Amino acid sequence: MTALTLQVKVRPRSRSSSLQQAADGSWVAQLKSPPVDGKANAELVALVAAHFGCPRSAVRIRAGASGRLKLVQVERP
Q: d(Cα 37, Cα 8) in Å, to the nearest integer?
């Protein structure tokens, strides 16, 4: 298994949910959920899992769970 680590900048309370790669190689996630009670983090995990076609259990937030800049690890077979 290989692990892919992404640097993701999160923008909560957006009109729609999306995940896009920026020109510098980092990622920008726009989330509908507010950053309350882990709702935005849960939406981010689901969004990353859907984008990379893996289960949500293969995605985890390694750093920055309470901030807007996060390191997200994706386990890929």
A: 19
From first to last of its 77 residues, what are the pLDDT tens digits of the chain?
Answer: 789 999 999 999 999 999 999 999 999 999 999 999 999 999 999 999 999 999 999 999 999 999 999 999 999 87
Residue ranges of the domains in the chain?
2-76
Superfamily of chain region 2-76: YggU-like (3.30.1200.10)
For residue 2, the model assigns a pLDDT of 86
Question: Are residues 44 and 61 in contact, defined by beta-carbon separation less than 8 angstroms?
Answer: yes
d(C-alpha 47, C-alpha 59), whole Å:
10
CB within 8 A of 69, min separation 6: which ones? 7, 8, 9, 10
Distance CA 3, CA 30 (A): 23
